[in-house]
């Protein structure tokens, strides 16, 4: 019989009607080439936002605080560099500026918790309980043990009085409860999420007990998080790694990709993406006459490097009276002859001069307009000398790499590695540097590519990966913005496309132009009413004028449509230390997320995450904690229009997002120390180091390749059971489904044959295991399961009238 492989059907999305820059703080010891410059008078401040809605509001105001954020009980905390004036503006927007050393911290000592609860009897969770343990994970790092717990109460939304929860744990199997402390209640966008805690322990507990202030109690067994992981490939004898010696700008990345394809033609090639970028280029500009009603903003018709930088503009005061406004052009020199009234006073307004420049400059000027929102009614003053227009791209920032950046549109190469590049093997897309300032993702991805080609002939596990997968590397998906980050403005996030109208099109806004490429996709976008993308062209997460407006995002869609064997994708970002997937966005009012993956896909994501992050930990014990793993809208914030959502829901691709460079535990201080977008390359190897981040996260990418290779070879049917199974019971009974691997279950309870249109076995709640059915009368369950690779249990065909599905009858007879 032919084996049937299915891809689980996905839910359709609901239809919905719908200045200044705060930069990442450079790490101590960072050299100028490896950290953003700090504006004069700026200082580092810790901030607290009430939630995703405020984050979007602050971004719309022109501030850039998208990364390095932490979800805390009262909202979101982050760190920013701001001047006193900017801090005042943030306060006016409702942002809380925290005192030095303030902010959310997990409790270090037991605090007694909720009075009187310790004596409550501990009973197993049943369908009637109001408290559920979502997860209880134990992990160690740098010699210290930690317990992370999430628990949920069905009354958690109650805010007056707020429902509290107490956590206790034992010190090993058979030991008494102790260490009582209160858990923190987390709310996002006004909706209760869960209570959770992370705290240090000297001994691994076996069980925890969670008690609600309303009386519910639950016991959970502690699991190991990232413990006992298999050794990474780097420990294989003779394995070669550590190829990257520093940060790489796009020209270096692309050149190396082409060299690899030339050196290893039997396993590598280059694919050139069809849509060229808009280019590392700008129109030459100048703002003449200050910033008031008399100011004029002038933009060249030609790109700066194609002649715009040669243009000069002079406002001329001629002797005499009753003189008309005129424009003279000699070569690239423009002289605006200002009008004079009957008394000999200058009489040309900024609006009039702007119109004259646009119509009489012989095509040299493309746009001229009053400054920002001014009406241009002020009289223009003469200049003391000609003013040169410039694109400012030759004014390199201090410490920028040597060399010139090619101007004009860029063709992005894709490095494809695989022995069988005929689409017969599962494809894996690694996409780095959507966001320009994120330098480590590019080096991490290149390190993984180097490991594949250098170890192919000498390491049998690498050979399996290359033989059994088809890997596509986009080492920098935003070359224009990345070059701008390296050479001009280190904190550049977006590409360099200017979609701004006159109010935001002057040279003072240049660092705020561009589109956030990871907000420019079609599923769960800002255009559909989802939060986390902005309509403001100067916002750090500007979504663009339309879905897929940018060539860089169009290229991704072209790639996955042309190479339909791509089944896995990792969008590599920094910094923050999160690994996430769908849902990635929600509508703030009611916190309505994009469709959550079926329980089987969710389980596959979690299983894969554990393997990937275990390999990260093996390098220097960096632990991405469970609180930072899951649906990105659950562990971070809403990011409307992100690439992962589009690839998963449109094409069925397992699409991960990765914020590399997360917090590392510092045993000397007892604190978790965060990273930055561009940490010093060597830095402190055990704490903040671009080199260490590159190596440890490359370990994780290599593990993702192994996962894809195994997925492609998976031909085994999943197995599932109803627990307890068929039987006679004298009272109502709770039942649930269990599977031997991540798999989605389709079931019926009305005696009919299950199909892909039947109900799916769902999680009790997000981040929780499968639901429990409380059976009160005799019921027959018919079902089948489908694993992540599309294998169907018992080779059952849900489209044909066969009966080789699973069945169990729960008989209730008092």
From TrEMBL:
Residues annotated as the enzyme's active site: 659
UniProt keyword annotations, A-Z: Hydrolase, Metalloprotease, Protease, Signal, Zinc
Name of the protein in question: Peptidase M14 domain-containing protein
InterPro entries cross-referenced by the UniProt entry: GH29D-like_dom, Peptidase_M14
Signal peptide start and end residues: 1-24
Top-level lineage group: Bacteria
Protein source organism: Asanoa siamensis
Keyword presence, Zinc: yes
């Amino acid at each position: 019989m032919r084996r049937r492989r299915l891809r689980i059907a996905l839910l359709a999305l609901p239809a919905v009607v719908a200045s200044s820059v705060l930069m990442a703080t450079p790490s101590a010891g960072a050299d100028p080439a490896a950290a953003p410059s700090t504006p004069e008078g700026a200082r580092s401040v810790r901030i607290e936002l009430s939630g995703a809605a405020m984050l979007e509001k602050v971004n719309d105001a022109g501030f850039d605080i998208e990364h390095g954020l932490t979800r805390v009980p009262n909202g979101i905390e982050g760190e920013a560099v701001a001047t006193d004036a900017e801090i005042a503006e943030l306060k006016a927007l409702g942002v809380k500026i925290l005192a030095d050393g303030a902010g959310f911290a997990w409790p270090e000592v037991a605090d007694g918790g909720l009075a009187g609860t310790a004596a409550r009897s501990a009973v197993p969770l049943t369908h009637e309980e109001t408290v559920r343990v979502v997860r209880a994970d134990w992990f160690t790092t740098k010699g210290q043990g930690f317990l992370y717990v999430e628990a949920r109460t069905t009354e958690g939304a109650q805010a007056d009085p707020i429902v509290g929860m107490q956590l206790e744990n034992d010190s090993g199997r058979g030991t008494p409860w102790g260490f009582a402390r209160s858990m923190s209640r987390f709310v996002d966008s006004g909706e209760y999420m869960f209570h959770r805690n992370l705290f240090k322990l000297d001994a691994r507990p076996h069980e925890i007990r969670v008690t609600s202030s309303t009386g519910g109690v639950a016991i959970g067994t502690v699991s190991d998080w990232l413990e006992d992981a298999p050794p990474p490939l780097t420990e294989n004898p003779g394995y070669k790694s550590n190829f990257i010696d520093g940060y790489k700008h796009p020209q270096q990345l692309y050149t190396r990709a082409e060299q690899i394809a030339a050196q290893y033609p039997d396993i590598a090639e280059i694919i050139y993406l069809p849509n060229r970028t808009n280019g590392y280029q700008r129109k030459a500009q100048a703002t003449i006459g200050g910033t008031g009603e008399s100011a004029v903003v002038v933009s060249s018709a030609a790109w700066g490097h194609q002649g715009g930088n040669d243009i000069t503009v002079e406002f001329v005061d001629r002797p005499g009276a009753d003189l008309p406004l005129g424009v003279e052009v000699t070569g690239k020199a423009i002289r605006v002859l200002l009008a004079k009234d009957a008394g000999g006073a200058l009489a040309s307004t900024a609006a009039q001069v702007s119109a004259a420049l646009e119509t009489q400059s012989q095509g040299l000027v493309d746009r001229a307009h009053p400054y920002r929102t001014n009406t241009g009614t002020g009289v223009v003053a003469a200049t003391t000398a000609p003013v040169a227009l410039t694109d400012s791209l030759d004014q390199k920032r201090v410490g920028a790499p040597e060399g010139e950046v090619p101007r004009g549109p860029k063709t992005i190469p894709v490095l494809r590695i695989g022995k069988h590049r005929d689409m017969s093997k599962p494809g894996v897309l690694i996409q780095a540097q959507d966001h320009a300032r994120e330098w480590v993702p590019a080096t991490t991805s290149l390190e993984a590519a180097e490991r594949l080609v250098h170890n192919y002939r000498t390491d049998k596990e690498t050979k399996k990966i290359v033989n059994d997968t088809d890997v596509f590397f986009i080492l920098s998906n935003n070359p224009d913005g990345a070059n701008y980050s390296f050479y001009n403005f280190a904190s550049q996030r977006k590409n360099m496309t200017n979609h701004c109208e006159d109010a935001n099109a002057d040279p003072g806004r240049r660092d705020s132009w561009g589109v956030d490429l990871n907000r420019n996709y079609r599923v769960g976008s800002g255009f559909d009413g989802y939060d986390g993308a902005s309509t403001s062209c100067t916002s750090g997460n500007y979504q663009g004028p339309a879905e897929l407006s940018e060539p860089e995002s169009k290229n991704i869609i072209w790639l996955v449509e042309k190479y339909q064997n791509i089944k896995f994708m990792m969008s590599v970002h920094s910094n923050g230390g999160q690994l996430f997937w769908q849902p990635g966005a929600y509508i703030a009012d009611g916190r309505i997320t994009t469709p959550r993956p079926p329980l089987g896909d969710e389980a596959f994501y979690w299983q894969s995450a554990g393997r990937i992050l275990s390999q990260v930990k093996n390098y220097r014990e960096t632990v991405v904690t469970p609180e930072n793993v899951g649906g990105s809208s659950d562990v971070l914030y809403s990011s409307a229009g992100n690439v992962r959502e589009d690839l998963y829901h449109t094409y069925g691709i397992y699409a991960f997002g990765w914020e590399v460079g997360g917090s590392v535990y510092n045993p000397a201080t007892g604190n978790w120390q965060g990273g930055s977008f561009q940490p010093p390359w060597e830095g402190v190897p055990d704490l903040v180091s671009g080199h260490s981040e590159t190596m440890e996260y490359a370990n994780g990418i290599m593990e993702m390749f192994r996962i894809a290779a195994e997925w492609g070879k998976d031909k085994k049917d999943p197995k599932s059971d109803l627990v307890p199974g068929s039987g006679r019971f004298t009272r109502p009974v709770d039942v649930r489904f269990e599977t031997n691997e991540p798999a989605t279950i389709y079931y019926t309870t009305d005696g009919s044959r299950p199909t892909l249109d039947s109900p799916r076995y769902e999680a009790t709640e997000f981040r929780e295991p499968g639901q429990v059915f409380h059976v009160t009368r005799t019921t027959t369950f018919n079902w089948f399961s489908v694993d992540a690779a599309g294998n169907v249990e018992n080779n059952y065909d849900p489209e044909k009238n066969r009966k080789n599905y699973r069945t169990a009858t729960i008989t209730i007879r008092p």
